[in-house]
C-alpha cells in the first residue's frame, strides 16, 4: 500500500470516528499524532487577564457581538498551506470568573496571530474552559505554545486529548470561535455551585485503568458508564453499569437511586468513564462530595484515550495479543462536520 493510500485509509477511518457527542466533545483517536517540541510547562493559573485595547485589528469578518460579556470572537480560518488538520480537544475546570472576557480576547488574539488556519471552538465559563480544534499540522507547535502560555491545560501536554489527522478539505469547524457562556458542561444540578470540580476522584491513565479493571472480579467491580443510553448501546466496557439516561442532567437521580443506599461500601473503588473525560469530572465530584464515595476513579481522556492507548499497544507490539476491555464502537456524533454548533 502506498503512503498516500494508507493516509487516505487512515483519514477515512479518522473521519468515521472523529464525530463528537454534544458535550463530551473530544476529537477522535487514531495514531497519527504529530511530533512536537515539549513546551515548557508551569502550573500557574491563567495570566491572561489583560485587556486588549486595540480593537482595530479585528478583521471585517469578525462579527457577532463584539462587546460586552456575551461577546463572541470569531473569524473564518485564515489561509494555510497545510494539507492536513490535527484534531485536538481539552478541558480544564478552574475559576475564570474574574477574567472570562480578558481570557477570551487574549486567547482569541493568540490563536489567530500564532496559529494560522486554526478552526474550532473554545468555551469559557465561570467553571472552566472546554475547547475542540482542528489545527493545521504545520502549526501544531504554535498551538501547544498558546495553550501553554495561557494555561489552558493544567500540567502537561498530555492534558491535550489528541485526535485523528484529517485531510485539510474535511469539513470540520467553519470558524475559529472563542466565546464566553454560562457553563462549559450543562449538568442540571441543583447543588452545582457547592461542588468543587477539582475534587472529583482520581484520574487513571488508560494503562492504569486497564490494569486495575483486569484485576477486579466482575462480581465486585463497580464500573459506571456515565454516558447516555444511545451511546452505551453502541459499545461499553465489560461489566459496566449503564445509567440509561437520555441527557446528562438525568444522571443525578439515577446515581442517587443506585448508590445512595446503605448497601454500598463507600471506601471500595468506583470506576467511572465517559467519551473524553469531561462528564466524569462532574460525576466524580457528585459521587465524592454528594454521595460520600472516597475512592472514585476516572478514565483519563475517556474511551477515546483508552482506544488510542490500546491501539498504540498493539502497534508497538508491547501487548499485541491482549484484547481490549472495550467492546463495540465509541458512539460519536459530530455536528461540526455539518457546520452545526456544538452545544
Ligand atoms: C450583545 O451583548 C449585549 C451586552 O452583553 C447583549 O445585551 C446582547 O443581547 C448581545 N447580542 C447578541 C446578538 O448576542
Ligand atoms: C504558502 O506557501 C507559499 C509558497 O511557499 C508562500 O508564499 C505563502 O506565504 C504560504 N502561505 C501561507 C498562508 O503560509
Ligand atoms: C440500565 O438498564 C440496564 C438494562 O435494562 C439494567 O441492567 C441496568 O441496571 C440499568 N441501569 C440502572 C442504573 O438502573
Automatic annotation (TrEMBL):
<dbReference type="InterPro" id="IPR040503">
    <property type="entry name" value="TRHO_N"/>
</dbReference>
<dbReference type="Pfam" id="PF17773">
    <property type="entry name" value="UPF0176_N"/>
</dbReference>
<protein>
    <submittedName>
        <fullName>UPF0176 protein YceA</fullName>
    </submittedName>
</protein>
<dbReference type="Pfam" id="PF00581">
    <property type="entry name" value="Rhodanese"/>
</dbReference>
<feature type="domain" description="Rhodanese">
    <location>
        <begin position="217"/>
        <end position="315"/>
    </location>
</feature>
<feature type="signal peptide">
    <location>
        <begin position="1"/>
        <end position="27"/>
    </location>
</feature>
<dbReference type="InterPro" id="IPR036873">
    <property type="entry name" value="Rhodanese-like_dom_sf"/>
</dbReference>
<dbReference type="InterPro" id="IPR001763">
    <property type="entry name" value="Rhodanese-like_dom"/>
</dbReference>
<keyword id="KW-0732">Signal</keyword>
Amino acid at each position: 500500500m502506498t503512503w498516500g493510500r494508507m493516509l487516505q485509509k487512515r483519514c477515512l477511518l479518522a473521519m468515521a470516528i472523529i464525530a463528537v457527542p454534544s458535550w463530551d466533545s473530544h476529537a477522535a483517536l487514531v495514531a497519527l499524532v504529530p511530533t512536537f517540541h515539549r513546551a515548557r510547562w508551569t502550573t500557574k493559573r491563567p495570566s491572561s487577564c489583560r485587556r486588549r485595547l486595540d480593537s482595530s485589528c479585528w478583521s471585517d469578518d469578525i462579527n457577532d457581538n463584539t462587546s460586552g460579556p456575551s461577546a463572541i470572537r470569531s473569524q473564518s480560518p485564515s489561509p494555510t498551506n497545510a494539507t492536513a488538520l490535527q484534531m485536538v480537544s481539552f478541558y480544564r475546570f478552574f475559576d475564570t470568573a474574574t477574567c472570562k472576557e480578558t481570557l477570551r480576547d487574549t486567547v482569541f488574539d493568540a490563536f489567530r496571530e500564532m496559529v494560522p488556519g486554526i478552526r474550532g471552538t473554545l468555551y469559557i465559563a465561570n467553571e472552566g474552559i472546554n475547547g475542540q480544534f482542528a489545527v493545521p499540522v504545520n502549526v501544531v507547535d504554535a498551538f501547544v505554545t498558546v495553550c501553554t502560555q495561557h494555561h489552558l491545560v493544567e500540567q502537561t501536554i498530555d492534558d491535550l486529548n489528541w485526535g485523528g489527522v484529517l485531510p485539510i478539505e474535511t469539513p470540520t469547524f467553519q470558524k475559529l470561535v472563542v466565546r464566553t457562556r454560562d457553563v462549559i458542561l450543562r449538568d442540571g444540578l441543583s447543588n452545582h455551585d457547592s461542588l468543587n470540580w477539582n475534587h472529583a476522584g482520581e484520574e487513571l491513565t488508560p494503562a492504569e485503568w486497564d490494569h486495575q479493571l483486569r484485576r477486579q472480579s466482575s462480581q465486585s467491580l463497580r464500573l459506571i458508564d456515565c454516558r447516555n443510553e444511545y451511546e452505551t448501546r453502541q459499545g461499553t466496557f465489560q461489566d459496566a453499569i449503564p445509567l440509561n439516561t437520555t441527557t446528562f442532567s438525568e444522571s443525578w437521580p439515577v446515581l442517587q437511586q443506585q448508590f445512595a443506599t446503605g448497601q454500598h461500601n463507600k471506601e471500595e473503588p468506583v470506576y467511572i468513564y465517559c467519551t473524553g473525560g469531561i462528564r466524569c469530572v462532574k460525576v466524580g465530584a457528585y459521587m465524592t462530595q454528594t454521595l460520600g464515595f472516597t475512592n472514585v476513579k476516572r478514565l483519563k481522556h475517556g474511551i477515546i484515550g483508552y482506544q488510542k492507548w490500546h491501539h498504540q499497544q498493539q502497534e508497538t507490539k508491547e501487548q499485541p495479543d491482549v484484547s481490549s476491555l472495550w467492546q463495540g464502537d465509541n458512539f460519536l456524533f459530530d455536528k461540526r462536520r455539518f457546520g452545526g454548533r456544538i452545544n
